[in-house]
Design a protein that fits this description.
Elements (H helix, E strand, L loop, with lengths): L1 E9 L4 E10 L4 E5 L6 H8 L7 E5 L6 E4 L11 H6 L3 H19 L6 H19 L5 H11 L16 H14 L4 E5 L7 H13 L3 E5 L3 H7 L2 E6 L2 E5 L3 H36 L6 H13 L28 E10 L2 E11 L4 E6 L5 H9 L5 E6 L5 E4 L13 H6 L10 H7 L16 H13 L5 E5 L7 H13 L3 E5 L3 H4 L5 E6 L2 E6 L2 H10 L2 H28 L3 H39 L8 H32 L1
Parallel strand pairs: 3-7, 3-8, 5-6, 6-7, 12-16, 12-17, 14-15, 15-16
Antiparallel strand pairs: 1-2, 1-4, 8-9, 10-11, 10-13, 17-18
């Protein structure tokens, strides 16, 4: 389908890669791997035609279509979710218009016996058959399945895309690309903004429905479940392994051992030649042999070893104070936003030393409960933080709080204590800040780099309760392994909000599932939870929750008519007027809250870009909108209480 021959890319003195050749065939599921900066994203851009190589040929047949999802893209904000997604069917829409036009022409003409009419019939038949072969009649159903598979609810379809965060709008772009059914899918970190359920749906889609896939991902479980071939960019070359990722790791280790042995033999051979040349350089009787060795030495092609850091890098948390036996106790916690109940009756106890995961679809309340624990938002019910608990909290927006005048090294040096200060360079290297990168100013870092730096800083602070919200989104596999080992060795308590199954596997011993306004406890690891969920899914749980709610609602429905009967007409009218007024005030407040939350998300996305990170006007607006939002939430709570009182 796509043939790459003699590819070379140069950005500086040393080529990014050269003499690269491979073929992408139908039904290939390719994982493109390599260290950060090896050129994975560049390779995808070249394959889709967005970037030209320095040399070489990328041959794509004329009838082959390519769909490309970059890590970052410009998103449209002028339409609804479903209308934006329908753009994927633009070719089908144009074909339907042609079929309709031909059909109208056939119905209007009466020269049934003419050659022109018969040719028109043939054209209509051919176009209609093509239209039906594309499955055009099932487009809407397919569109809904895809959007819901990626986590959208039906109620989201009519909402403007501007109301959604950047991550959710990336899902819309992914849905459009999947619905276009290209011959080759090029996906750059597609799981960064997906929850576990959406990732599982995407895995199934790519495995069963896609024609050919080339993907870059740091989610090990995802690429293992999807791919059957691994292309590794290393030392400026591409090595093709016809196996999935786990098998590639083993083969790569064997390959590197062979390289090391060959490298050592070559170095010994070079050393022997140099020694011979130095010993006999000035002896006339050995002049011929010396010249021969010099020529041999010049012809030797140095053996390169794959770029792998095999050093045993371990990060250990600094000593912390012992917390109480129960760092977090929730009893009947409830959170509402307007008429929407995020969760209710949340009752859970997290013991000292436990590592627990918060999982569930996006929007089900994982981050909301974290904010309740942090005391950032109001709620109802009882939530107690244990004695002597020191919380370390990682969220994406914390990257904006770093001091931009400092370098990467100085940022960590200021929080490191004790012997760990001697290993700052090693720690930074494990999190992709090795070499000259440690001398970069924070002000020039990208959003992802800032997030990684904020993570390192948090890991060096003495806390006994870690709360990590999607900590692995910007980490490569080695950095994730370092972080995972550090958390496993941490003697405090950890709450981890994540969709990365491989990261959670072997790390957590308890899973809290968020969904349908409830939080359910599952003992065991993440794969124990997933096996259990496959048997008793959320879809199966939802109806039972609804049936339990019905008996409670019935008495209220029976009481209302009895109460209404006691009121005369004038009193009922006045009461209804007060209720409508209170409802309107609550709805207007909710609308204002929605607009402010949407603007905050928009500003957050803008500030994550490195060129905007130090824009004081944007930061000032963010602070102002956040302050207004807090005030409006308080006002909404007061109005909701008034509505509740007049409705009784």
């Amino acid at each position: 389908m796509i043939s790459v021959e003699g590819l070379k890319v140069e950005f500086g003195v040393k080529p990014l890669f050269s003499d690269v050749s491979f073929v992408i065939n139908e039904r290939d599921r390719i994982a493109l791997v390599g260290k950060n900066g090896a050129g994975k994203s560049t390779m995808l851009k070249i394959l889709c035609g967005m970037q030209k190589p320095t040399d070489g040929v990328v041959a794509v047949p004329n009838d082959t279509t390519i769909g490309y999802l970059p890590q970052v893209m410009k998103l449209q904000d002028d339409t609804t979710v479903i209308d934006e997604t329908r753009k994927a069917f633009s070719s089908v829409t144009k074909m339907r218009e042609r079929v309709d036009a031909l059909n109208r022409e056939l119905s209007e003409r009466t020269d049934y016996e003419s050659d022109d009419y018969l040719k028109l019939v043939e054209r209509f038949t051919a176009e209609h058959e093509r239209y039906m072969m594309l499955g055009a009649e099932s487009c809407e159903a397919e569109l809904e399945r895809t959007l819901m598979g990626l986590g959208f609810a039906r109620t989201d379809f009519g909402r403007p895309t501007s109301e959604f965060s950047g991550g959710w709008r990336m899902r819309i772009e992914l849905a459009k690309i999947l619905l276009e059914k290209p011959d080759v899918l090029l996906l750059d970190e597609p799981t960064n903004h997906l929850d576990i359920e959406s990732i599982q749906w995407l895995e199934q889609f790519l495995s069963q429905s896609a024609k050919a896939v080339v993907l870059v991902s740091h989610d090990r479980a995802f690429i293992n479940n999807v791919t059957n071939r691994t292309l590794e960019i290393s030392c400026g070359r591409v090595v093709d392994y016809k196996v999935k990722y786990d098998e590639y790791v083993k083969l790569r280790a064997e390959r590197r051992e062979q390289q090391l042995r060959a490298y050592e033999n070559q170095q010994k051979e070079i050393a022997d030649m140099k020694e011979f040349i130095e010993r006999f350089r000035y002896k006339p009787t050995k002049a011929v042999q010396v010249q021969s060795r010099i020529k041999q030495l010049a012809k030797i092609v140095p053996i390169e070893i794959d770029e792998v850091d095999n050093s045993a890098m371990h990060l250990k948390f600094p000593p912390c104070l012992r917390s109480g036996d129960y760092p977090v106790i929730c009893d009947g916690v409830r959170k509402d936003y307007g008429a929407h109940t995020v969760f209710d009756h949340v009752t859970l106890t997290i013991k000292r030393g436990e590592k627990v995961a918060f999982v569930g679809k996006n929007g089900e309340g994982k981050s909301t409960l974290v904010k309740c624990i942090m005391g950032e938002i109001p709620f109802t019910g009882s939530l107690k933080i244990g004695h002597n608990v020191q919380i370390g909290y990682f969220a994406q927006n914390q990257a904006q709080l770093l001091d931009e005048s400092l370098t990467v090294f100085d940022t960590i040096d200021r929080v490191a204590r004790g012997e760990i200060r001697l290993r700052i360079k090693n720690i930074l290297g494990a999190f992709m800040f090795g070499g000259e990168a440690s001398d970069k100013k924070v002000s020039v870092l990208s959003g992802g780099e800032r997030s990684r730096l904020a993570m390192i800083r948090l890991l060096l602070e003495p806390v006994n309760l870690l709360i990590l919200d999607e900590p692995t989104n910007h980490l490569d596999m080695q950095s994730k392994d370092v972080l995972k080992e550090a958390i496993k060795a941490f003697d405090g308590t950890a709450i981890i909000v994540s969709h990365d199954r491989e990261f959670l596997d072997g790390l957590v011993t308890k899973v809290y599932e968020f969904g349908g306004g409830r939080v359910r406890e599952h003992l065991g690891g993440i794969y124990d939870f997933l096996r259990e969920r496959n048997i008793d899914s959320l879809d199966a749980l939802a109806p039972s929750a609804g049936r339990q709610a019905e008996p409670a609602a019935a008495p209220a429905q029976q009481e209302k008519p009895a109460e209404a009967a006691k009121m005369d007409y004038a009193e009922r009218k006045e009461a209804q007027k007060r209720i409508r007024k209170a409802e309107r005030a609550v709805q207007e407040s909710e609308a204002r809250i929605g607009k402010m939350e949407a603007r905050l998300k928009e500003l957050d996305d803008i500030l994550c870009r490195p060129e905007n990170a130090s824009d004081m006007a944007l930061i000032s607006e963010y602070t102002s909108v956040k302050r207004d939002l807090d005030a409006e939430v308080e006002r909404w709570e007061r109005l909701s209480e008034e509505l509740e009182s007049v409705s009784q």
